[in-house]
Every structure is written in C-alpha cells, then in structure tokens.
Amino acid sequence: MKASHFLISTLKEAPADAEIVSHQLMTRAGMIKKLGAGVYSYMPMGLRVIRKVEAIVREEMNRAGAIEVTMPVVQPAEAWQETGRFNKMGPELLRFQDRHGRDFVIQPTSEEVVTDIARQEFKSYKQLPKNLYQIQTKFRDERRPRFGLMRGREFTMKDAYSFDKDRDSAQASYQTMRDAYQRIFDRFGLQYRAVRADSGAIGGDLSEEFQVIAATGEDAIVYCPNSDYAANIEKAESLAPAGPRPAASEALEKIATPGNSTCQAVADQLGLPLARTIKSLVLATDEVNEAGEIVKTQVWLLLLRGDHDMNEVKVNKVDGLANFRFASLAEIQDHFGCEPGYLGPLNLQKPVKLVVDREVAVMADWICGANEKDFHIRGVNFGRDLPEPALVADLRNVVAGDPSPDGQGPLAIERGIEIGHVFYLGTKYSEAMNATFLADNGKPTHFEMGCYGIGITRLPAAAIEQNHDERGIIWPDAIAPFTVVLCPIGMDRSELVKQAAEKLYADLLALGVDVILDDRGERPGAMFADWELIGVPHRVVLGDRGLKEGLVEYQHRRDAAATPVPLADVVAQLK
Length: 575
Ligand code: ATP
Ligand code: MG
Ligand code: MG
Ligand code: MG
Fold this sequence. Notes:
There is one protein chain. By secondary structure, the chain is of the alpha+beta class. It has 16 helices and 30 strands. Strands 3, 7, 8, 9, 10, 11, 12, 20 and 23 form a nine-stranded mixed beta sheet that branches. Strands 27-26-28-29-30 form a five-stranded mixed beta sheet, with helices on both faces. Strands 17-14-13-19 form a four-stranded antiparallel beta sheet, with helices on one face. β1 (32-36) and β2 form a beta hairpin. α1 crosses α12, α2 (44-63) crosses α6 (167-187) and α7 (248-255) runs antiparallel to α8 (263-270). The two termini are 16 Å apart. The relative contact order is 0.15. One magnesium ion is lined by residues 384, 418. This is Proline--tRNA ligase.
C-alpha cells in the first residue's frame, strides 16, 4: 500500500467524549468515526485491524472444527417468541415492526436462529457433534454505550454454537472451544485471564470469560496468585466469614432518601460488600417483639437501574397478605408507583417499601430472606452494565486479601475487559424450541448446546489499553493495520531515496510483508508522529545521507531510538 492511495486522517485532539485511551487513540488515528451513540464507521485504517482480528479468529475456529455460517441480522420475532426472549429480554433487544406490523429484532446474539437451523438440519446423532459460527454484526441497545468500540451498540461478534448428543460430549465441545480461545488470545499477544463467570440471562452452569487485564476494564477479576483460581467478581467466593451488619433501620432510612444514594453510598452505608454492577437490591428487615418473634418484615426493593434481563421477579409472602408476581421491571414500577425512566445507573431512583408480616422470598434473579433477627441481605442482583469505574473499584463481595476458596492464599483483584465468553447451555434452547435429533436408541432427544462469543471489534480497543504510550498505539504485529512503514525523507528531491524506497517496498511486498510506503511527502516530524500515533510496529527511515553509506534506520515502535541497519540486511530482518 502506498500512503498517497490510502486514507490517513489523523487528529491532534481526541473528541471530548473519549474517556479512555483506546477510544481517544482509535479516533485520533483515524480508525473509527462516530455516527451516533455507540454507532461507528470502521475507517480504512481501523478496518484493516478488524479484518486481521477476524482472520485469526476464523482460522482458529476452523482449526477447532467449527463451520462458518451467516445468520440474518434482522430476525423475525417468531423464534424469539418460542424461547420467550422476545418478551423477557430487556431493552437491549432492539425490536421493531415491518410495514405489515410484524415483529422483528436485530440480533444481539443468535441462539434462536441457530437452534432453528439445527432442528432442521441435524436429524441423527450420527451428524453430531456440530459447531456453527458466524462473524457478524450485532446490535444491543446498551444503556450506556461508551468507550468507542469497547461498548458499542452496533458491533461485530464472533458467535459460535455447539450441538451435541449428550452432556459429556457437550462438555468436550466446550473444552475444544476453550482451547481454541486460548490459542486465539495467545496469538494476539495479549495479557489475559480465563475466569469463572456468571451465566446471567443466557443460563447454563458452566461459563468462563476471557478477560484482558487493563486498569480501565469494566469488570473486576478476583484471582489467587498461587493457584489457578480466577473469577469475575460477580461469581467470586472467598473463605472469609460474613462481616457484621449495621443496624437495619438506620441504614435503610439513609438509603431511602431518593437521590442521595449511589451504589457506593449504598455499600458504604450498609457496610456491605457489594459487587460492581448492582441493578437492584432486595433488602429485608424484621421487627421482633420482646419474645423474639418476628412481627413484621419490611422488604425494600431498591431499583438502581432499569435495564434488567429479567425472567420473573416474585415477591412472595408465605402466609397471607402479599403475593406479587412481576414479569418485568416495568410491572414493578407500575405496581409500586415508581417513576418510569431512571435518572441513571448510579442514582437510586426510588426505594419501594413493601410491608408484609413474615417470611419473604424474592425469586428468580433476586433472592432474599428475612427471617433472621438482624437486618441482612441474602441476595444481590448483579447486572451486566456498570457504574463508573472509579466507584466500581470499591463495590465488592470479595475484598483483596480474603482467603481464596481453594485455600491457596490471599485473593488479589485486578480489572479486566471481557473479550470472550464460553458457555455451556445444556438443553435450555433446544427444549424451548423443541429441537431434537434421533439418538442411537431411536428416540427424539434434545440437543445439548454451548455458545461461545468473541468481541471482534472490542478486541482492538482492549489491545490498545494494554499497548500504548504517550505518542500513540503500539500494535502487536498480529493485528497491526500495517506491520512495516517505510518513511523516505525527501523522496521528491533525492533519486537515491526514491529508488531505494521503491525497491525496498517492492521486495517486502514480494515476501508478503504488510508494508506501507509513506509517499505523501510530509515533513519527517509530522510523518513520524502520524505513524507513532497509528502504531505501526516496525519503521524504516530512508535518508539520503545514510543511503550513501548503504544504511537505513530501523526502529521498533517500542524502541527509544533508531538503529542504523545496512539496507542489504533490512529485508531479512523484516520478513
Ligand atoms: P458485557 O459484560 O461487556 O456487557 P456481555 O457479557 O453482555 O458483555 P456476551 O453476551 O458474553 O457479552 O457477548 C460475547 C462477547 O461480545 C463479549 O465477551 C464481548 O467481548 C462482546 N461484546 C458484548 N457486548 C459488546 C458491546 N456492547 N460492544 C462490543 N463488544 C461487545
Ligand atoms: Mg459480561
Ligand atoms: Mg452486556
Ligand atoms: Mg459475557
């Protein structure tokens, strides 16, 4: 590629909304262009990176035996109604109607459609196992799209789905994907950790995330430096005894003041170890008479935010007065008179007070009990999206230094960016959609499934969080937009420079090196600044004086200074 034929559009300043370094640098390097909240054009320089990410992922998925397919971005609602997710999923699922008033969704993930394919195609156990994957556009109407490609609304995901005849085989498929993920992330040269994860709204009981270690990550990872224990804080455990709880009524009165509470304040005031992304709390207090009998229980639903992926919330009083079932947060809001529309994830909108007189169980994602004397919390609902990183850091259900659950020493906590997620799903979707094959006993049997995602467009952003300096991006070779840049000085004035540059360019191209020749005629300072910002890992500068002695200057993007190298050797060094 010659720079004069390409689109290079670097910026001195980052846009005001770019809070983290990857967003700033990708914008300044001309890799992405914002169209709207969480919606970006991938500019030519950025697209080259994304295509390299895709190529590596595709290669390793194929190597692992997965088969590529492409499913529709716009999906009729029928399959989503079969699994119930059309109604159950929160507002992240973008729904719309066509001209005939038929319901559609834009795929945020594709379990329904792939299960529909499987039930038509895989008729016999002899066709199993199978793994179908796509690298495709997804849309999630994220409550807080931010950080550029890190949390977009439209983004590219690799999503794979395995179909097996039984549980053992499904777990082997899970392991195959897990191994492939390790190879993939090793090839990107990233520092990452595989951690136990919550299976959230998708369900299933075996689930791990791949987290790129970065201070700006939205997730907190708990790990034991002496063993392989590592878990997302949502799922983390420790051997630490539960701490004392403050007096209930006082704490509740404080947090019951609308507007005064953030997640942090809730945690502080209750003295509670809370995980980072609290959507709601169900708190309960008991009033006890002199005989020690519970005479009244108050249940407080603290609705911190409104984008639940909720199945069903049941506030259930065992003996009598209150018995509510809610299918959505909206219903809870209606029932208890909360204002619709929340101020934002950190503002406690309005606590809801329910008064019942004995045991209370809040089911589904929310679990709570209230039959002990003191105020306590039995369950906290942890969400997906999150509050401010600065606040999040201290919202923990496990604290650094707590004893690891495997007894191997104190736990440490670091922050991470979720770039991949592997899930064992079991028969959740195959049962809901009655997707069966004929087993070797001749009986129709539900597929055992797994699903496996990689954030293709999140990955470059995560790579930048780990690889940058004050001048710009430092790409790992595997995903650099170009691996080598040739910077001739005074190409228009010196025939020697022009010829050497053109020849070196042709030689490298012939060897398959992904090289760009900067023939724009920029001044050296501006030219170097551009390539340092863009982050091409290898740079060769060709100048008249050096060439007269047969020398060029080589500099890796991480090197402090350039090294003179004989022109004759430079091809061998770069190939
Ligand atoms: P997060 O916790 O960050 O919201 P998720 O758990 O909702 O992610 P999954 O459903 O597990 O995401 O999707 C698989 C992968 O897709 C994630 O591991 C992540 O890398 C990527 N991904 C998810 N949401 C986004 C997004 N809004 N923008 C870019 N990539 C995303
Ligand atoms: Mg997640
Ligand atoms: Mg999410
Ligand atoms: Mg996930």
